[in-house]
Every structure is written in structure tokens, then in C-alpha cells.
Amino acid sequence: MNSRTVVIAAVGLVLSGTVLGLAVLQRSGQRKIAERQKELALDLGNLTQPMTSSIRNFAPVYPAKPKPHTRQREGRRPIEVQDNRESSPAVSSPLTIFAADPQPAKTVSHEPKGDYAPAFRLIKCQLVNTVDSSNTATPIIGLVTEDLWWNGKLIIRANSEVHGVANVDRVRERIASNGEFTFVLN
Q1: Nearest Cα to 162, choosing from 118, 121, 112, 133?
Q2: Which residue has the higher pLDDT, 17 or 72?
Q3: Distance CA 61, CA 84 (A)
Q4: What gap in Å lies between CA 142 and CA 163, rounded to an integer?
Q5: How would you write the chain as a 3-class SS string?
Q6: Which end of the chain is less crowded, N or C, counting CB atoms within 10 A of the terminal residue's CB?
């Protein structure tokens, strides 16, 4: 053992001896120590018994008094809801509710905005860049070769750009593209 450990042990023994000596020298110190040892011996048997009761802070909730139901409707007057509990310690501010007038239903237009072509129309394009199979997110850039017409209107002009992203198709071991294409109109 080193000297530091010896000094710490000596100080601990001196302090505990001093405390015990003072307890014995006090008036009726030995009697108090004996009583405390008896209490500890009795309480040791009750150590494993569960606690059967506890004291909790309990704040009762009072039910609100029912109000008579009225069927009259008045226009845009605030309704104030007040707390009906007289013995409530907390004071709360009243709640104000405003009733709105019924709004007319919005008309939904089923017509598309502007010129359009039906979904899944085939557009003839020519690939501009090389698609790399080793990169999983290679961009696809194409050029529209023929105009797309619908209902006598020109929807997509020739020489417009088409942008998309290539992916690897593991089932057919090819390069595929699924997702959205963006058209840069000429």
C-alpha cells in the first residue's frame, strides 16, 4: 500500500471512532443506539412487503352544468362560454366563437387549362447523348423529330428537347427509364 491510502484509511477510522465516541458519551447515548438497532431489526422483516397506500395530490374535476338547448340562430354574434364551477381555484378567460355564413360551393372546372394531348401519346424522339450503363442515374436527353398535333392544334413542336433519367432494368438486363420526362418547348 502506498502512503496516500494509509493516510486516507487512518483519517476514516479516526472520524468513525469520534462519531461513535460522541454517541456513547451523550446522555442516554447507549440506550438510543440499542433502540435504533431494535427498530432496524423489526423493519428488516418488512423490507420485502409492497407498499399498500400512498398519498397523492388530487384535484377533483367538476362536471359542467347542462344548459337548456335553444334552436334560435342569430347572425354573427360572439358566443361566450364561461366556466360554471364556482369553487375552481384557477380563473380562465372566456372562449369566443364566431359562426360564419354558409359559403357557396366552388365550381370545379373539368376542362384542361390551355392546349393539351391525351395521356400516353407516343412522341417520336432521337437520343442526343450517350447513356452510360455503369452510372445508375444517367441523364437522357432527346430531340423531338416530329410535331405532335391534337384536335387541330400543335402541342409539341419538332426540335423541342426531352429530359429524363435512366435506370438499370435488372429483369431484362437493359437500361430503362421510368418516371417523368420534362419537355423544353422550342
Answers
A1: 121
A2: 17
A3: 12
A4: 7
A5: CCHHHHHHHHHHHHHHHHHHHHHHHCCCHHHHHHHHHHHHHHHHHCCCCCCCCCCCCCCCCCCCCCCCCCCCCCCCCCEEECCCCCCCCCCCCCEEECCCCCCCCCCCCCCCCCCCCCCCCCCCEEECCCCCCCCCCCEEEEEECCCEEECCEEEECCCCEEEEECEEECCCCEEECCCCCEEECC
A6: N
Question: Each residue of 97-153: pLDDT tens digit?
Answer: 777 777 788 777 777 778 888 888 889 999 998 887 777 678 889 999 999 999 899
Q: Which region holds residue 109: left if phi is over 0, alpha if psi is between -120 and 50, else beta? A: beta
Type of residue found at 138: T
* Residues 147/156, Cβ–Cβ less than 8 Å: yes
Cβ partners under 8 Å of residue 165, min gap 6: 137, 138, 139, 140, 177, 179
Residue type, 133: S
pTM of the model: 0.40
The three cell numbers of residue 129 are 447523348
pLDDT recorded at residue 11: 94
